[in-house]
Amino acid sequence: MDTLKNYINGKWVESQENSTVDVVNPANQEVLAKAPFGRKTGNDVQEAVSAAAKALKDWKDTPVMKRVQPLYKLKQLLEEHQDEIAELITLECGKSFVESKAEIQRGIENVETACATPTLMQSEFSENVATGIDEFMIRQPIGVCACISPFNFPGMIPFWFLPYAIACGNSFILKPSEKVPLTMIRVFELIDQLDLPSGLINLIHGGKESVDALLDHPEVKAISFVGSTSVARYIYQRGAANGKRVQAQGGAKNPVIVMPDADIEMTSKIIADSVYGCAGQRCLAASNIIAVGDHGGMIRDALVEAAKNKTTGFGMDAGIEMGPVITPESKRRIEGIIAQGVAEGAGLLLDGRKASIDGYETGNFIKPTILENVALDGELIMAEIFGPVMSLLHMETIAQAIDFVNQNNYGNMACIFTTSGLNARTFRNRADAGNIGINIGVAAPMAQFPFSGWNDSFFGDLHGQGRHAIEFFTQTKVVIERWPSEWTRKF
Ligand code: NAD
User: Fold this and answer.
1) Can you list the domains of the chain with their CATH numbers?
2) pLDDT digit string (tens) for 359-417?
3) I want to staple 371 with a disulfide (CB 3.0 to 4.6 A). Which of 39, 78, 326, 346 is the partner?
4) Which one, of 407, 456, 466, lies nearest residue 434 by Cα?
């Protein structure tokens, strides 16, 4: 099996690293490919940065209207190849084909939004700030930008950054997760068909070594990272210490409050979709469900009903709603957290640990799991599980529930289900999270809004997507100029 190649300076080239890591189908452990992984991937970074720096020279002065033209073609190519790319996502990442297609759609929406860069980059102008003096602010590119992406959305997350970066006049280097590099390789085969300067967009493989080389390279001016909190914090600190602009999205632990006035059946279905979609491997997956007031056991029964009907299996098979988790280690870790919660007194309403799928006996499957009476300071409640596990809690008032929501170190998403406008407003105002859902289970911002995140879920100032991306990928220059009227009198 050949080792995957890097895409540098408009060509597919071999990595300088000989060691590899297997890319594995999590549904059956089939080895799909071998990706370069090791110390010398750091040397590949040098090559990619040189190519990106060279491409930048003409690109930054190319009119913005011209810079967005290849994005229209990219949108068309992504749409034409959507099924094929979605299949790759399912093969290497495990999610269902329907989820994979929806993921690509989100990527396409970012390409579409970035096509508005000519308007989004427009300057601000003030005439006569003092007599005969005008002042304006322009946005200019920052240089070579790099993105390091996680395993769980291989077809979407690079698009939170890539189209905006190049439309703003920068060059770009992507380092996908070593667990799921195939999706972006296919996308880069499409990017190769665009009319872009060689070296403008590059792809390199690897793990910590290639990331560290990007963080330390003086010509890399900006880093966009999405992944776990511990790595996000590290990336932010090392990148910022090296004088780079950094946006680093981290992990999550997302609470959902259900008020007694909510429609229980609809709410439970939406919550189950949120908890179990992508097998819980989503930074916007609901995890802690807080039933407020007296639901008379209805919420418990409705959640179990909605969860137990989720069909689990290989994501390319018809009707499958939930695939495997990414690795056997991940499965063991999740099952360990469930076991520990039970040892601490939690009750299992639904136990998905002994999942065996016909034909996929070696897959990393866990079926929907629900626990109740969980210790509030235990891992089940406090830690990011990243698996199909729900903890059901009961509290008496909305005030208690919001205090509980705000105790968590993360702050990616918080949701409420209610028919009361006042409850919704109170929650929206007081919940400490960057993405708020009101009667929504996965509060994923559309491409024109920033993909927010608070506390340990985000390090930096400007997020991916929309206007924030435009601001992140440009530096402002303020020009103040005087044209005294006395000078014109000479003519
Ligand atoms: P991860 O942190 O293990 O890896 C992410 C990237 O960092 C990969 O490309 C990996 O090669 C690299 N990396 C890993 N360890 C590194 C190290 N020590 N030094 C430098 N680079 C390193 O994350 P993952 O397991 O791939 O993805 C899942 C995580 O991503 C979850 O915590 C999830 O919540 C988070 N996530 C967050 C968002 C968000 O918007 N906040 C979105 C998607 C995923």
Assistant:
1) 6-250+461-478 (3.40.605.10), 254-438 (3.40.309.10)
2) 999 999 999 999 999 999 999 999 999 999 999 999 999 999 999 999 999 999 999 99
3) 346
4) 456
Whole-angstrom CA distances from 456 to 228, 318, 375, 401, 461 are 10, 38, 22, 20, 13
- Identify which of 228, 247, 456, 457 to mutate to test ligand 1's pocket (most ligand atoms within 8 A of the CB): 228
Q: Name 393's bridge partners.
A: 290
Stretch 70-89: mean pLDDT: 98
Confidence at 486, pLDDT banded by 50, 70, 90: confident
Residues 465 and 217: their CA atoms lie apart, in Å, by 25
- Strand blocks (E) in 250-396: 254-258, 286-292, 347-350, 369-372, 389-395
The candidate with the shortest Cα–Cα distance to 295, out of 260, 257, 266, 334, is: 260
CB neighbours of residue 372 within 10 Å: 19
Distance CA 312, CA 364 (A): 11
Q: How far is CA 75 from CA 113, 115, 463, 471, in A?
A: 11, 10, 22, 22
Is the CB of residue 211 below 6 angstroms from any atom belonging to ligand 1?
yes
pTM, 2 dp: 0.97
Per-residue 3-state assignment (H helix, E strand, C coil) for 129-172: EECCEEEEEEEEECCEEEEECCCCCCCCHHHHCHHHHHHCCCEE
Kindly state if the Cβ of 287 falls inside 6 Å of ligand 1.
Answer: no
pLDDT score, position 1: 84
State pLDDT tens for residues 103-145.
999 999 999 999 999 999 998 999 999 999 999 999 999 999 9
Q: Is the CB of 82 under 6 A from ligand 1?
A: no
The first and second tokens of residue 49, run together, are: 């940065």
Q: Is residue 402 classed as helix, strand or coil in its secondary structure? A: helix
Buried b (16+ CB within 10 A) or exposed e, 228-243: bbebbebbbebbbeee
Q: 3-state DSSP call for residue 281? A: coil
What distance in angstroms lies between residue 253's CA and the mean position of ligand 1's atoms? 15
Our answer on whether the CB atom of 228 is closer than 6 Å to any ligand 1 atom is yes
First to last CA, the chain: 77
Residue 302 pLDDT > 90: yes
**Residue showing tokens 């999270």:** 433
- HSE value, Cβ hemisphere, 13 Å, CA-based, for 136: 11
Tell me how far the alpha carbon of residue 393 lies from the centroid of ligand 1, in angstroms: 29
CA 206–ligand 1 middle distance (angstroms): 13
Among candidate residues 115, 147, 278, 283, the one labeled active-site is 283
Give the containing element (helix H, strand E) for 266: helix 264-276
Task: For ligand 1, say whether the CB of 180 is within 6 Å of any of its atoms.
Answer: no
Residue from 16, 21, 39, 60 nearest 171 by CA: 60
